[in-house]
Write a structure and sequence with these properties.
The protein is of the alpha/beta class. It has four domains: 173 residues, inorganic pyrophosphatase (n-terminal core), CATH 3.90.1640; 100 residues, CBS-domain; 124 residues, HprK N-terminal domain-like (Udp-n-acetylmuramoylalanyl-d-glutamate--2,6- Diaminopimelate Ligase, Chain: A, domain 1), CATH 3.40.1390; 117 residues, Roll (Diaminopimelate Epimerase, Chain A, domain 1). Helices cover 36% and strands 21% of the residues. It has 21 helices and 23 strands.
Length: 546
């Protein structure tokens, strides 16, 4: 499983760009398997950045709880009806497997074959001499398993229940015993003994197998042709030839057909409930069309490997990709406050600094490693800084951000001043998205003083579109808060020109009566010089709630 580098839910430009850039750095240093991921699609501004940089969007992963197809064995050894015991056993032996799935021509699972059930082909009822001799197979399979050669072949592909008889006695005793069985079903195994070969051929047995690699006289072969008796030459001695003929039996009778297959798209947790109740040795893993895609053992499902994550631009499980609480978080790179819920069983690298952008921290990691980012990655990181600091005008901006952005400017391959104008000129959420999508575009959930709430933030050039859509946005906030079971939901609309914001709430509590900011309408406040959710608005709300 790859190392996934994730930004927060409803990712903004800094979350997407820091994930891409940090995954690139890890690939070039310690983790070549690092993959940038996101649990929500990029917004319009971020898409603009990726187009200009020529970078692909991160892998969209909405839940990191492992699915069965993530933990199953993809290189699958299979069997099919009509295979011989010897063929199936050799595949299992080479794969060190005790059971394998049986599939049809379309790779649909029709059963499971195990070593334990295969033994039934050998250990039959010894008290019944006919059953003990029975081998259901074809002469072709017998010849293949022996690695032998036909001297005469009569209908070699026909499947029969054959009876194996070893000619290791006197001619008289052999003839007398042979008469106890139907000759058309007999396969007589003998060495270079014409006194056995000729009576068997004369009786019209199904086949004679000559052991030890001995040649058969041409006149005997002619008699066999005349009598319609197949003749096979075996390179093995009589004992081993007989054992191999037994191993040429078709596996069909011992295939367990009442089997449980597991959909590959099931989560491991869903599969675990089924696997723990089953006595199957292995579990075929199938696609939506029921075709076999892998094989899972109980240990794969009950104790699966945990996905490994690096969190960037957040450190709270409430903001992380679903399933992060069941994953192994190996590193955190962030510039927000410390949140709750994050735990680890081992020490991890945790970098959290009060800078304006996570991309600032990633760029510093490039510099510390002595690596120059490509122009595409440099532009990606510069965009994250520009977005999160409103091009260094946000109060969250530090001298570190200014220094890093200047360092990146010389490596981007574009005119950053012109790029900034284009960046903020596009992607008006109020112009292009539904009210519900506006609320969800860059939304984070918090819990302060026992109050659970969300803050969404969008950046606009002026407030004209907001006033046109104010009522729809308030209704969307109310619906969102109710659906997510929040105490309230807030939308911060920031004007990148005036460096001020409007705050719209799903509902007001008594706490907001203490704010000194002007109330413009029901649940609507003007926040002059407030542009940062993390450094200005969140502390304000926390203070009011306290």
């Amino acid at each position: 499983m790859s190392l996934l580098v994730f930004g927060h839910r409803n990712p903004d430009t800094d979350a997407i760009c820091s994930a891409i850039a940090y995954a690139d750095l890890l690939q070039r240093t310690t983790r070549p398997d690092a993959v940038a991921a996101c649990c929500g699609p990029p917004n319009e501004r971020t898409e603009f950045v990726l187009r200009r940089a020529g970078l692909a969007a991160p892998k969209l992963v909405m839940d990191v709880r492992p699915q069965v197809e993530d933990v199953c064995r993809r290189e699958v050894v299979t069997a099919a009806f009509g295979d011989a015991f010897h063929e199936a056993y050799e595949r299992m032996r080479k794969g060190d497997l005790r059971a394998i799935p049986v599939v049809d021509a379309e790779r649909q699972v029709v059963g499971v074959l195990s070593i334990l059930t295969m033994m039934e082909l050998f250990f039959t009822d010894a008290a019944d001499s006919t059953k003990a001799r029975a081998v259901t197979t074809s002469l072709r399979k017998i010849c293949e398993v022996l690695g032998g050669a036909f001297r005469n072949a009569i209908d070699p592909d026909r499947a029969d229940e054959l009876l194996v008889m070893v000619g290791a006695m006197s001619a008289e005793g052999f003839t007398e015993r042979m008469q106890r069985y139907p000759c058309e079903r007999l396969v007589v195994v003998c060495g270079d003994r014409p006194s056995i070969q000729l009576p068997a051929i004369d009786a019209g047995v199904r086949a004679v197998v000559i052991t030890g690699g001995f040649p058969l006289a041409s006149e005997v072969v002619e008699i066999a042709k005349a009598k319609g008796v197949s003749v096979i030459q075996s390179p093995f001695d009589t004992v081993n030839t007989t054992l191999r003929i037994k191993s040429a039996q078709f596996i069909d009778p011992v295939v367990e057909r009442d089997v449980v297959s597991i959909p590959g798209k099931w989560t491991v947790a869903e599969a675990r409930a089924v696997v723990e109740r089953s006595g199957q040795p292995v579990f075929p893993v199938v696609a939506d069309d029921e075709a076999l895609i892998g094989l899972a053992f109980k240990s794969d499902i009950i104790n699966p490997p945990k996905p490994q994550l690096v969190l960037v631009d957040h450190n709270e499980l409430a903001q992380a990709v679903p399933g992060a609480d069941e994953a192994e978080i190996v590193e955190v790179l962030d510039h927000h406050r410390l949140g709750g819920g994050l735990k680890s069983t081992q020490p991890i690298r945790f970098l959290n600094e009060p800078v304006g952008s996570t991309c600032t921290l990633v760029a510093r990691q490039f510099r510390a490693a002595g690596l120059a980012p490509t122009p595409a990655i440099a532009l990606c990181m510069a965009s994250g800084i520009i977005s999160d600091t409103l091009h260094l005008r946000s109060p969250t901006t530090t001298d570190v951000d200014r220094d890093v952005l200047e360092w990146l400017a010389g490596r981007c391959g574009v005119d950053l001043d012109l790029f900034v104008k284009e960046f903020f000129a596009i992607g008006s959420a109020l112009r292009s998205k539904t009210a519900t999508d506006v609320i969800r575009e860059d939304c984070k959930e918090f819990t302060e003083h026992g109050v659970r709430f969300s803050i969404s933030q969008i950046e606009e050039t002026g407030f004209d579109l907001f006033w046109e859509r104010k009522d729809d946005l308030r209704a969307a906030l109310e619906t969102f808060a109710d659906k997510q079971r929040l105490d309230f939901a807030a939308l911060l609309v920031t004007d990148v020109v005036s460096n001020g914001s409007l705050l719209l709430l799903s509902k007001e509590s008594e706490a907001f009566e203490d704010t000194n900011y002007p109330r413009l309408d029901r649940s609507l406040y003007a926040l002059e010089n407030i542009v940062s959710r993390k450094k200005q608005l969140l502390p304000l709300i926390s203070q009011l709630l306290s």
